[in-house]
Amino acid sequence: MLTLRDGMPPLVETPPALAEMCELLAAGTGPVAIDAERASGYRYSSRAYLIQLRREGSGSFMVDPIGFESLEPLHRTLEGTEWILHAATQDLPCLNEVGLYPTALFDTELAGRLLGYPRVGLATLVETLLGFRLAKEHSAVDWSTRPLPLPWLEYAALDVEVLVELRDLLAAELIETGKDEWARQEFDYLRSFVPAVRTDAWRRTSGVHRVRGRRALAAVRELWETRNEIAEQRDVTPGRILPDAAIVVAATALPTDRDALMATKGFHGRGADRYASRWVAALNRAAQMDEEDLPTRTPRGDGPPLPRAWAEKDPVAARRLVLAREALTAVAEEHHLPVENVLTPDYLRRTLWTPPKAREPEALAAAVADQLAGYGARPWQVELAGPVLVDAILTADAEPEVVVPPAALTDD
After folding, report:
1. Using CA of residue 291, residue 297, residue 302, residue 305, what is the dihedral sign?
2. 264, 293, 322 — which closes off a domain?
3. Are 240 and 280 within one domain?
4. CB atoms within 10 A of CB 228
5. With contact defined as beta carbons under 8 Å apart, do 167 and 84 qualify?
6. Which of 190, 216, 245 is the last residue of a domain?
7. Which whole-number Å values give the CA distances from 139 to 61, 123, 343, in the listed order?
8. Most CB atoms within 10 A, among 63, 80, 208, 404?
9. Torsion over CA: 121, 123, 124, 127 (sign)
10. Tens digits of per-residue pLDDT, 179-212?
11. Do 83 and 173 have their domain in common?
12. pLDDT tens figures, 267-285
């Protein structure tokens, strides 16, 4: 079991303590291991409630960001250093929120994926490569709790204890396998990562597929948006106010008053009764909505349709997709990579649904490369996947009579 080699690091909560920590960090050498704890499942926001750091020659530190108006001293100290993060896309947004931006980074989870490790969780990689076991019993606690219990703090400090050593082993393996340049491009791309803003996020309500009719869908949307407003105002995760299951049963039953709503079987939750008047108002808005304003079953988007519909809408495009998926799977196996790391599925679908018009091989290859790069594919991905897509486009065009059964086109 992994333990803290230098004992429990102090919790930095004041400007003088932050200044002292920054001096010690600046005196260290090499990259800085960083982790952040959020209150996922408890709070609406994704803010950082604890930041852990470790650097060789400096030791480990823990910062409580809640009491600080600014972490500018820490930002200045970290400027020009390489950050080591595990699953950077999870922590970068909340670190950016407090003014911390990397000038270089190394993502140990992504490195594990590029190296073909079947499981890339931090605990698994630490045990596989370093032989230590990481305790995970506090991974789902409410980090907005104050004061933070000592066992939680010890658990958090362990998350950066061996990140430097893990990074060094993975970096050496990336060089040995010739994947270090791929990793460099990926890590550089991550520096500007911004979470995608979901359109029609209410459509992800669990169980919405059971709702029948556009008016019931409108009720789901109105209830979801009302719940989201309440959750944001209270900074509470939405499911703690009203579970998705309650939204679905209310939208299906469409009760018109408080008594009928509260009598609806399955309508429950901490905020079911407290906000009953707001739920009823949401349901009434849906009931009174003009027909043209009701949501459709399939969302309108700027991208291609779901793959299962391609065979009917564009049989040649369906053939392109089947050919490209088969070839990309072979490329992924050859290089010991997850196929989604060879090329983002959305980039694949967009390129094959609306490919370049050129059909002369060299011109098509250049156009495909430009199209992929425009979506965000990195050069190493374009180099691996580009020829696959070109071949799929040319082959499908040459065999338009080949019919692809819809069952061969599963959605990603």
Report:
1. negative
2. 293
3. yes
4. 15
5. yes
6. 190
7. 19, 11, 31
8. 63
9. positive
10. 999 999 999 999 999 888 888 999 999 999 999 9
11. yes
12. 999 999 999 999 999 999 9
